[in-house]
Specification:
The complex is a heterodimer of chains A (411) and B (261). Chain A is of the alpha/beta class. Chain A has 17 helices and 14 strands. The N and C termini of chain A lie far apart (47 Å). Chain B is α/β, with parallel strands linked by helices and 261 residues long. Helix content of chain B is 43%, strand content 14%. In chain B, strands 5-4-3-2-1-9-8-7-6 form a nine-stranded parallel β-sheet. Chain B is globular and about 45 Å long. The chains are: A alpha/beta (411), B alpha/beta (261).
Chain lengths: 411, 261
């Protein structure tokens, strides 16, 4: 919750009342949903000030999700990549297998508080869809999830899970049939059903207040990490790493570190974005490396777009990072020099996936593998004694078909 | 140069606002379509800019945008649309009805707001409708777009405060969205439409045109009883591949709106 943090303007300005972090963010949406966004902003601020809301959410995080998630010291991985110490923040051990549920519990509690009986969500890899379906089942809400047809094909396990959990999965057969198309379809549907439906957005994107709301609900990741590092007497951390698509686990990891910049010797914060087949190809999702500022899905941020201002189709082996934009607060943090963002290719992510399986007995999500893939680079830059924290945002069961197709585990 | 969009509403009868997509089925076809709308009696032309992620549009307009972007060599976007409008308006001269661009915000941002405003003015385009630019977000555009009528949208969900804001900040007319949801033909008009139009009219001194879901002459005639203007989009775009068919439907709609039949 916002209120748990020091005043934002002590560290940096933003967002303002219209949701701008510097130039990024805003509410660029049709008038039809503007009243709903204003109502949601007020309800979110009210809930953030209400200790009983925070208590309810906190109880669910502990008893239902299994928080706090462990901060695990991965010794064999550290040795393999040439770093002194590597800690993994184990969001893969959350109920439903990823960090997404931290946020869906917060948003669905808010939906109930606002008297809504029906929720919708978009999903890429299916993790946010499963988390929303799970939370809706828990809270007795009707649930529909929009998912691109390409993602339905490559994430069939999660599609089935959502159905088991009682959610309706609505295929989106437009564009490349991936996350961006699912967000557009969900927004369109919300415009039509805004009066009785709460849109549970899973990433740190969209019109205000979604980026802030998702950040605050996901900041439990970074807050716990800081607490756990202090509990172990760690004084120096050289880098903190997370993968970035829209950027929910990354903002949840980075934000508390940005606010507490003087702790642990001011580690560098690094986001791993999806380079797909490479940043010199047109099959990429590297919006920070290759994008320019623009508006999509109701917010202004770095965006892969053509000369006429059309958003481009992104590509990544990872359905969760396959998005042409990025959350507005990330764009701001990049410009401010507080976080750096590095592209990671499909092949590098697969290699890191393989390495974590073999060195630690942990099967990571292909999204999280992008963050792991930065470790060898960081080892070169920071030296063999460096300490790095990686947010392992999810587990890899859902990716088994993809990595098998890529030839992993064939020996 | 245009006298602004309000000129469409001074004939002492409701106005037909007719939408077509620029570049669809190709550039020449869309120029023919614009001429057909004039022949068909449209009072105001809304020219759509093809865009890849049209959040507020239904399937007919989405598909036309996709065709326009892929059928024209080098694509078809905002710059090409302004160029098309300039050619059409120059050809029509004094006889040209007011013309507004309907575009999403990002093409404007990509071209640069001051630059696009200058291009719109020099083309003689009277105004713009930007569905993803609510009044709250508009100052950055309004400070550079003097001489261009920016039309804001009023929705069934708008609160009285927001209707006042829309009514005060709009120029030319207020675009009243008939129903929640996206553009496209619907078999029935919402029951409470006349009440909504009344609320919007009470919030502004400008004419109020109603759009989204109006497709037949019968529906247009009903809407014209309470509104100052009727916007028809998808039904016209569906006939845009054939200028003759387009002109015929436009004429029927114009007659219905003008109260001729």
């Amino acid at each position: 919750m916002s209120k748990m943090f020091p005043r934002l303007d002590e560290v940096y300005t933003g967002p303002d009342e219209n949701g701008f972090f510097g130039p990024y963010g805003g509410r660029f949406v049709p008038e039809t949903v503007m009243p709903a966004l204003l109502e949601l902003t007020a309800a979110f601020e009210d809930a953030s000030d209400d200790p009983s809301f925070q208590e309810d959410l906190s109880d669910l995080w502990v008893d239902y999700v299994g928080r706090p998630t462990p901060l695990y010291q991965a010794r064999r991985l550290a040795e393999a990549v040439g770093l002194g110490t590597v800690f993994l923040k184990r969001e893969d051990l959350c109920h439903t297998g990823a960090h997404k549920i931290n946020n869906t519990l917060g948003q669905c509690l808010l939906a109930k508080r606002m008297g809504k009986k029906r929720v919708i969500a978009e999903t890429g890899a299916g993790q946010h869809g499963v988390a929303t379906a799970t939370t809706a089942a828990l809270m007795g809400l009707e649930c529909a999830v929009f998912m691109g047809v390409e993602d339905i094909r490559r994430q069939s396990l999660n599609v089935y899970k959502m159905k088991l959990l009682g959610a309706q999965v609505i295929p989106v057969d437009e564009g490349s049939g991936t996350l961006a198309d699912a967000v557009t379809a969900a927004l369109r549907h919300w415009v039509e059903r805004v009066e009785d439906t709460f849109y549970v957005l899973g990433s740190a994107v969209g019109p205000h207040p979604y980026p802030v709301m998702v950040r605050d609900f996901q900041s439990v990741i970074g807050l716990e990490t800081i607490d756990q590092l202090q509990g172990r007497g760690i004084e120096k951390v050289d880098a903190v790493v997370a993968c970035v698509g829209g950027g929910s686990n990354a903002i949840g990891t980075f934000y508390p570190f940005v606010l507490a910049a003087d702790l642990f010797g001011s580690p560098e914060l690094v986001g791993a974005e999806a380079a797909g087949k490479g940043i010199d190809t047109d099959q990429t999702g590297a919006s920070m490396t290759l994008g320019t500022p623009g508006v999509m899905h109701g917010f202004y941020s770095y965006l892969l777009q053509d000369d006429a201002g059309n958003p481009l189709e992104a590509y990544s082996i990872s359905a969760g990072l396959d998005y042409p934009g990025i959350g507005p607060e990330h764009a701001f943090l990049k410009d401010e020099g507080k976080v750096s963002y590095e592209p990671v290719t499909d092949d590098e992510a697969l290699e890191a996936f393989d390495l974590l399986c073999r060195t630690e007995g942990i099967i990571p999500a292909i999204e999280s593998s992008h963050a792991l893939a930065l470790l060898p680079r960081l080892a070169k830059r920071l030296g063999p004694d460096a300490t790095v924290v990686v947010t392992l945002s999810g587990r890899g069961d859902k990716d088994i078909d993809i990595v098998r197709e890529a030839g992993l585990g064939s020996e | 140069m245009s006298d602004g969009l309000r000129g469409a509403f001074i004939h002492g009868r409701p106005a037909l606002v007719a939408y077509v997509m620029a570049g669809y089925p190709d550039r020449a076809g869309s120029l023919d379509a614009l001429r057909a709308l004039v022949d068909g009696g449209a009072d105001l032309i809304e020219l759509g800019v093809p865009y890849a992620d049209p959040l507020a549009d239904g399937p007919v307009i989405r598909e036309a945008a996709d065709v326009a972007r892929s059928a024209n060599p080098g694509g078809f976007g905002l710059a090409e649309t302004i160029d098309l409008a300039a050619e059409f308006l120059a050809e029509m001269g004094e006889g040209a009805p007011p013309l507004a661009l309907m575009t999403y915000l990002n093409p404007l941002m990509r071209m640069g707001l001051p630059r696009v405003a200058e291009a719109i003015r020099s083309a003689g385009i009277g105004g713009v409708i930007v569905p993803d630019l609510p009044p709250d977000m508009a100052p950055m555009w309004l400070t550079v777009s003097s001489g261009i009528d920016t039309v804001f949208l009023a929705a069934p969900t708008s609160t009285p405060e927001r209707l006042s804001k829309v009514g005060e900040m709009s120029r030319g007319f207020v675009y009243c969205v008939s129903t929640t949801g996206v553009t496209g033909e619907r078999t029935e008009l919402p029951n409470e439409l006349a009440t909504l139009v009344g609320r919007v009219k009470a919030s502004t001194t400008l004419p109020v045109a109603v759009g989204f879901g109006v497709s037949t002459p019968e529906q247009a005639a009903i809407v014209a009883r309470s509104a100052d203007g009727v916007v028809v989009g998808s039904a016209l775009v569906r006939r845009q591949h054939d200028a003759g068919e387009l002109r015929a439907l436009c004429r029927e709609l114009a007659d219905a709106v003008h109260g001729v039949v």
